[in-house]
């Protein structure tokens, strides 16, 4: 069983990466193969809107996006993590999500094998964890369009290294996903 984490924070040792690392460590301790891909460090260019992917099976652009998709296709469980920047995900994650357009065909049928599980991690400073719920809900729709089964989300608040309960809640979400794989 394989679980991967995709994170989109420019802060390598920040909250999002800390939580997703702990989640993957927990999955690995139970025997999962794990891999962490840092979208903020990879070379992933913005979607060109050229529609090449509607007449071909893949994106026309040759960068690191294809290797991330290969990892997604070989994974059973996928964690997607982003800080909240101005009430929404980071530009690094949005850019990646736009490129996922190449993973649906002209009829909007997913090219990713069905049945993969996904869980979302968000990190923010606003104490109200539901503050940006309506903005973040659209990424649940993206997951649905790709044929992923959404296990849930956890919104962390503040410095997670100073608050063990934040890490515990993220790991609880990973365990929920792990138990379905
Ligand atoms: C450009 C920028 C915009 C931000 N916008 C918000 C925001 O709208 N709401 C919020 O609660 N926190 C906001 N924050 C705080 C981050 O979401 C928070 O520090 C988060 O934990 C950072 O995650 P990271 O450590 O994984 O990078 C913002 C931070 C930055 C740098």
From TrEMBL:
GO molecular function: oxidoreductase activity
Cofactor: [4Fe-4S] cluster; FMN
Major enzyme class: oxidoreductase
Annotated ranges, domain NADPH-dependent FMN reductase-like: 1-157
SUPFAM superfamilies per the UniProt record, alphabetical: Flavoproteins
InterPro entries: Flavoprotein-like_sf (IPR029039), FMN_Rdtase-like_dom (IPR005025), ISF_SsuE-like (IPR051796)
Keyword hit for NADP: no
EC number(s) reported in the record: 1.7.1.17
One Pfam entry name: FMN_red
Sorted UniProt keywords: Flavoprotein, FMN, Oxidoreductase
Record family assignment: Belongs to the SsuE family. Isf subfamily.
PANTHER family the UniProt entry points to: IRON-SULFUR FLAVOPROTEIN, NAD(P)H-DEPENDENT FMN-CONTAINING OXIDOREDUCTASE YWQN-RELATED
Protein name: FMN-dependent NADH-azoreductase
Gene that encodes it: azoR
């Amino acid at each position: 069983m394989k679980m991967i984490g995709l994170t989109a924070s420019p802060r390598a040792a920040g909250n999002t990466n800390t939580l997703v690392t702990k989640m993957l460590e927990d999955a690995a301790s139970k025997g999962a193969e794990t891999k962490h891909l840092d979208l903020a460090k990879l070379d992933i260019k913005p979607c060109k809107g050229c529609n090449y992917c509607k007449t071909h099976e893949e994106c026309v652009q040759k960068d690191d996006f294809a290797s991330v998709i290969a990892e997604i296709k070989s994974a059973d469980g996928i964690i997607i993590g982003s800080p909240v920047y101005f009430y929404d995900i980071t530009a690094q994650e949005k850019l990646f999500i736009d490129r996922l357009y190449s993973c649906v065909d002209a009829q909007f049928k997913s090219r990713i094998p069905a049945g993969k599980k996904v869980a979302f991690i968000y990190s923010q400073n606003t104490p109200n964890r539901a503050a940006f719920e309506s903005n973040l809900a659209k990424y649940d729709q993206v997951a649905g369009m790709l044929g992923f089964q959404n296990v849930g989300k956890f919104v962390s608040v503040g410095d997670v290294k100073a608050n063990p309960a934040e890490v515990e809640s993220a790991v609880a979400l990973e365990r929920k996903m792990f138990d379905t794989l």
